[in-house]
Design brief:
The protein has 379 residues and is an all-alpha fold. The protein has a single domain (3-377), classed as Growth Hormone, Chain: A. It is 84% helix and 0% strand. The protein contains 13 helices and no strands. The chain has helices at 3-31, 36-64, 67-81, 91-105, 108-123, 127-151, 155-171, 186-194, 197-226, 231-281, 285-291, 295-313, 319-373. Helix 1 runs antiparallel to helix 5, helix 10 (231-281) packs across helix 11 (285-291) and helix 12 (295-313) crosses helix 13 (319-373). The longest helix has 55 residues, at 319-373. It is globular and about 55 Å long. The relative contact order is 0.17. The mean pLDDT is 89.
Length: 379
C-alpha cells in the first residue's frame, strides 16, 4: 500500500470517534442524568485542552522532525484513558476520563494534518482528497452506531467510542515515518510566526468563526432528541452534513482555484448565519436534513481554507506547530468558550436560545472575516 492509503485509514478511525462523540455524546450524557450546564462543561474540556496541548505536542514533533512517532504516542495514550468509559455514570467520572483523553487526543488532528501535507508534497496528491476519508469515517460510523443504539441502548454509544479509539491507535502503527526539516529553536520559530500580523488576524477570524458555530452543533442534537427524533435520524442529520463536506473536500482544489480563498472564507462564515438561522424557522424533518448540507460551507470550506493557508505561510520546520495554532484558536479557545456559553444558554432558554446565539455570533464573525479575507491569498 502507498503511504497515503495508510493515512486515509488513520483519518477514517480518527474521525470515527469524532462522529460518535459529536453525534451522540450530548444525548448520551443527558440520558445518564447530566444537566445542560454539565454537558456544556464536558463539551468545553476538549476545546480547552486544544488551547495548549496541540502546541505542546506539535513542538515535540517539530523539534524531533518526526510527526508520526508523536501521533502514535497521543493515540495510544488517549485509548488507555478511556477503556473504562462505559462504566462512568455520573458527572465526575465522565469529566475525569474525557479530560484525560483530551489531554492527549486533541493534538492528533493537527499532527495528522501536518503529516499528510508533508507526504502530499513528497508523493503528490491533494490534502482534501486524503482528508475526506475522515469525513467518510464520521458518516459511516455515526450511522452504524445510531442503528445499534436504537436496537439496543444508549450504553452502546460509550462502547463504540472505545472501539474507535482502539482502532485509531492500532492503525497508527502502519503510518510511515517521514523525515522533514527540524526546528532547532521551537520558541524562536514560534515567536517569528506570531509576529506575522496577517497570520494573527487570520487566527482572530478563525476564533470568531468557531465561537459562532460550535455551540449549536453540541446542543442541536439534544433538541432533536427532545423532539422525539430517533438516534438514526440524529445520525442522518450528521450524515447529510458530513456527506456534503466529503463532496466539498473532493472538489476543494477546483473551487479554490475558481473562486479564491478570500471569497470562500467570507461565504463559509456567512453560511453560519444562514445555516443556524434556518433551523429557527424550519421543523420539517426533510428540510432539517437539507439545511444541514450547509455544513459543507460552515465547516468543510472553513477547514480546508484554513489548513492550506497555514501550510503556505508557516515555515516547514514549524508545520505541526502552525497547524496546532490554527486548532488552538478555532477548536480550542473559541470552541471551549462557545460550549460554555451554549450550556448556560441552553439551561435557561433551551435550544432556540443557542441558535439565536449562533446567528448573532455569526454576524460578528462575518464582520471579523471580511477585513482578513484578502490576506488569505498572500504568501
Amino acid at each position: 500500500m502507498t503511504p497515503l492509503v495508510h493515512i486515509r485509514h488513520a483519518y477514517f478511525w480518527l474521525f470515527s470517534f469524532v462522529g460518535i462523540f459529536a453525534t451522540f455524546a450530548s444525548p448520551y450524557f443527558k440520558s445518564i442524568g447530566l444537566s445542560g450546564t454539565e454537558i456544556g462543561v464536558i463539551g468545553a474540556i476538549s476545546p480547552i485542552m486544544m488551547v495548549v496541548m496541540p502546541s505542546v505536542f506539535g513542538a515535540v514533533a517539530d523539534k524531533r522532525g518526526n510527526t508520526t512517532g508523536t501521533f502514535r504516542f497521543v493515540m495510544f495514550a488517549a485509548m488507555f484513558t478511556m477503556l473504562a468509559f462505559p462504566f462512568a455514570a455520573s458527572f465526575w467520572p465522565v469529566f475525569v476520563m474525557i479530560a484525560a483523553m483530551s489531554f492527549f487526543r486533541t493534538s492528533s488532528g493537527a499532527l495528522l494534518d501536518s503529516l499528510t501535507l508533508t507526504l502530499s508534497e513528497k508523493n503528490g496528491g491533494d490534502f482534501g482528497a486524503v482528508r475526506l476519508w475522515g469525513s467518510i469515517g464520521f458518516v459511516t460510523t455515526s450511522l452504524i452506531v445510531g442503528v445499534i443504539a436504537d436496537l439496543t441502548s444508549l450504553t452502546s454509544i460509550a462502547w463504540a467510542m472505545v472501539v474507535a479509539l482502539v482502532m485509531g491507535a492500532f492503525v497508527s502503527l502502519w503510518l510511515p515515518t517521514v523525515a522533514r526539516e527540524r526546528s532547532d529553536n521551537v520558541l524562536k520559530d514560534l515567536a517569528e510566526v506570531l509576529q506575522n500580523r496577517d497570520f494573527m488576524l487570520f487566527l482572530l477570524s478563525v476564533f470568531a468563526n468557531r465561537f459562532a458555530a460550535t455551540a449549536p452543533l453540541i446542543f442541536y442534537p439534544i433538541m432533536l432528541k427532545e423532539a422525539h427524533y430517533s438516534n438514526v435520524f440524529v445520525a442522518l442529520f450528521w450524515v447529510m452534513g458530513v456527506g456534503a463536506e466529503i463532496i466539498y473536500f473532493r472538489f476543494a482544489p477546483i473551487l479554490a482555484a475558481r473562486f479564491g480563498a478570500s471569497r470562500i472564507a467570507v461565504v463559509a462564515t456567512l453560511g453560519i448565519v444562514v445555516h443556524f438561522g434556518l433551523f429557527l424557522v424550519v421543523s420539517a424533518p426533510a428540510w432539517i436534513l437539507v439545511i444541514q448540507t450547509l455544513h459543507a460551507l460552515t465547516f468543510g470550506a472553513f477547514y480546508y481554507t484554513g489548513v492550506t493557508y497555514v501550510a503556505r505561510v508557516v515555515p516547514r520546520r514549524m508545520r505541526a506547530g502552525g497547524q496546532a495554532l490554527f486548532a488552538a484558536a478555532g477548536f480550542g479557545v473559541a470552541g471551549g468558550l462557545s460550549s460554555l456559553c451554549g450550556g448556560a444558554i441552553f439551561d435557561r432558554y433551551r435550544g432556540e436560545g443557542v441558535l439565536w446565539f449562533a446567528v448573532a455570533a455569526g454576524v460578528l464573525a462575518v464582520a471579523a472575516t471580511i477585513p482578513v479575507a484578502e490576506r488569505l491569498t498572500r504568501v
